[in-house]
TrEMBL record:
<keyword id="KW-0479">Metal-binding</keyword>
<dbReference type="GO" id="GO:0035513">
    <property type="term" value="P:oxidative RNA demethylation"/>
</dbReference>
<dbReference type="InterPro" id="IPR037151">
    <property type="entry name" value="AlkB-like_sf"/>
</dbReference>
<feature type="binding site">
    <location>
        <position position="200"/>
    </location>
    <ligand>
        <name>Fe cation</name>
    </ligand>
</feature>
<dbReference type="GO" id="GO:0035515">
    <property type="term" value="F:oxidative RNA demethylase activity"/>
</dbReference>
<feature type="binding site">
    <location>
        <position position="256"/>
    </location>
    <ligand>
        <name>Fe cation</name>
    </ligand>
</feature>
<dbReference type="GO" id="GO:0005737">
    <property type="term" value="C:cytoplasm"/>
</dbReference>
<feature type="binding site">
    <location>
        <position position="202"/>
    </location>
    <ligand>
        <name>Fe cation</name>
    </ligand>
</feature>
<feature type="domain" description="Fe2OG dioxygenase">
    <location>
        <begin position="182"/>
        <end position="318"/>
    </location>
</feature>
<dbReference type="GO" id="GO:0035516">
    <property type="term" value="F:broad specificity oxidative DNA demethylase activity"/>
</dbReference>
<dbReference type="GO" id="GO:0008198">
    <property type="term" value="F:ferrous iron binding"/>
</dbReference>
<dbReference type="InterPro" id="IPR004574">
    <property type="entry name" value="Alkb"/>
</dbReference>
<dbReference type="InterPro" id="IPR005123">
    <property type="entry name" value="Oxoglu/Fe-dep_dioxygenase_dom"/>
</dbReference>
<dbReference type="Pfam" id="PF13532">
    <property type="entry name" value="2OG-FeII_Oxy_2"/>
</dbReference>
<dbReference type="InterPro" id="IPR027450">
    <property type="entry name" value="AlkB-like"/>
</dbReference>
<keyword id="KW-0223">Dioxygenase</keyword>
<dbReference type="GO" id="GO:0005634">
    <property type="term" value="C:nucleus"/>
</dbReference>
Length: 326
């Protein structure tokens, strides 16, 4: 059943039937309508969370759950435009840099590209080579590196986990009541239009009780969430730029996939006003935060995201109290 639905959305046709795809904005506009999802609220608004640069105040966050998939939550774009720019630039300029691992094959790309993909892409003048370099980037891994073959994490294969991303996840995890979440591994996925990710479960982490945080930026994904087996029919939802999807509880080990990317999002190229008091947030790359507000600096990132999607998904690997893998 999962594979059949996946193929329905992945079909090459330019206009697949999207009438079943859950749109959270539509639910908000028509709360009375019988829908597969509903909005929920949290009673924790008195905490001083609005202090995080690039995020809207939690009072303005809108959180949704799917009635038939307990444990799956979507916080609908809690980021400001400035915040989205920052995380997009981090995913393009910084996260694919060594010692993080990228998918780029050593037989097809020089070390220079494999160690600093974005810099080489910006410096490349030949249009067809630029296209080749751009399209080839599909993932980078941070923290404990996911091993795509064995699916087993290894204590000897890890790079430092970015402090800014860890703090971001800490904030969302405390908002949802997971005070002890630790960001220990992430995969950043890059999706050019036309790409997809087939059905899988994320079960490599010894810790299945901690939630998984998944951030979407750029073009919209159709995301499928199914059950513990491929027999169950998945539900399709839209994940739009800025959305935060959380897989916790029962949904943590469920099949999921991205059969299609739809071009819907036009990010502004204008300069933005800068935020104040950034010096209190030393865990951010403050220079980058300021630079992305400038239209010239933002332009190459904006151009990349005009026909691509980026997803960052962050997991806790170790069980509570463990300091390393056994
Ligand atoms: C994943 O499951 O690894 C990525 C999901 C997504 O791109 O939203």
């Amino acid at each position: 059943m999962f594979k059949t639905v996946f193929k329905q959305y992945k079909v090459k046709s330019t206009s697949p039937d999207l009438s079943e795809v859950v749109s959270f904005d539509e639910i908000d506009d028509n709360p009375e309508k019988d829908s597969k999802a509903q909005r929920i609220s949290f009673n924790n608004e008195d905490t001083n969370w609005s202090e995080f640069p690039g995020l809207k105040s939690p009072r303005a966050w809108r959180t949704f759950v799917l009635k038939s998939h307990p444990g799956l939550l979507v916080i609908r774009n809690p980021f400001t435009d400035h915040g989205q720019r920052y995380w997009i630039a981090r995913c393009l300029r910084d996260y694919p840099r060594a010692p993080n691992i990228v998918n780029l094959n050593e037989r097809l790309f020089d070390d220079s590209v494999r160690c600093d993909w974005w810099k080489e892409l910006q410096e490349c003048k030949d249009p067809s080579e630029r296209h080749r370099i751009k399209a080839a980037m599909r993932w980078t891994t941070l923290g404990y590196h996911h091993d795509w073959d064995t699916k087993i994490y290894n204590e000897h294969s890890k790079s430092p986990f970015p402090e800014d991303l860890s703090r971001l996840c800490q904030l969302f995890s405390s908002y949802l009541g997971y005070q002890d979440f630790r960001s220990e591994a992430a995969i950043v996925n890059y999706y050019p239009l036309g790409s997809s990710l087939s059905g899988h479960t994320d079960h490599s982490e010894p810790n299945h009780l901690a939630p998984l945080f998944s951030f979407s930026f750029g073009q919209t994904a159709i995301f499928l969430i199914g059950g513990r087996t491929l027999e169950e029919k998945p539900t399709a939802i839209y994940l739009e730029s800025g959305d935060v999807l959380v897989m916790s509880g029962e949904s943590r080990l469920c099949y999921h996939a991205v059969p299609r990317i739809i071009q819907t999002t036009n990010m502004s190229t204008d300069s933005l006003p800068n935020e104040s008091k950034l010096e209190n947030f030393k865990f951010l790359d403050i220079d980058l935060f300021e630079q992305v507000a400038d239209s010239n600096y933002w332009q190459p990132f904006c151009s990349y995201i005009a026909d691509s999607r980026i997803n960052i998904n962050v997991r806790q690997v170790l069980k509570p109290g463990d300091l390393k893998l056994n």
